[in-house]
Amino acid sequence: MKKLLLATVVLAMTAGFASAQVVRLATEGAYPPFNFINDKGEVAGFERELGDEICKRAALECTWTTNEWDSIIPNLQSGNYDAIIAGMSITDERSKVIAFSDNYYPPTASAYLAASADADIKTGVVAAQVSTIQAAYVAESGATLLEFPTPDETVAAVRNGEAVAVFADKDYLRPFADESNGALVFVGEDVAIGSGIGIGLRQSDTELKAKFDTAIKSMKADGSINALIDKNFGGKGLKF
Fold first, then answer.
1. Residue 236, pLDDT score
2. From residue 237, how far is each of 172, 196, 232 by CA, in Å?
3. Which CATH number applies to 109-192: 1.20.1080.10, 3.40.190.10, 3.40.50.620, 3.30.200.20?
């Protein structure tokens, strides 16, 4: 009888593991504190911790991979992974081709970071990462857009004189300003773009979106998202 009961328990556990939905999450791995690669070569940062908790609450088995930013949406559509969690702002333009979960980070300001307070951000050369909402904004602003594949390269362009400023999420740029000892400064007004940051999914994956939305709502309700923001942004991130 005991052997029969044990066999039943093992069979139930095996069935549970077998039925767990495997979801492949993609991030850029180059956008701290949202996402980066740590010394062990693993995905880390706010979105790694957030994604793992979302998957736990949604009873999903999640794996992580990295993908270059400029092809991250096409590779989602091609089925190379199931969701994007990579500091991606929710915009009307992107929503035409992919679906988004509820936002897990509030609408954040975009800002100009320059090497001098008198930088000409209206007609000068401004750096931005390719395929971002900031690049699209600069392209329509009257300034000359200089695009780079990675966010680090946009900041480097200001430091080496290729661009008068970089335009990006202020949360991303703030550490560079803080650590520059005045060599890099914010100029001009902050610009509000997008409706916050969410998980990108294929439009057909409505069931997965519902699971993500439920988990995100629960984390907002119990304050755990704000706790992760405080932990990863040093108390300077936006909160719900």
1. 86
2. 10, 13, 8
3. 3.40.190.10
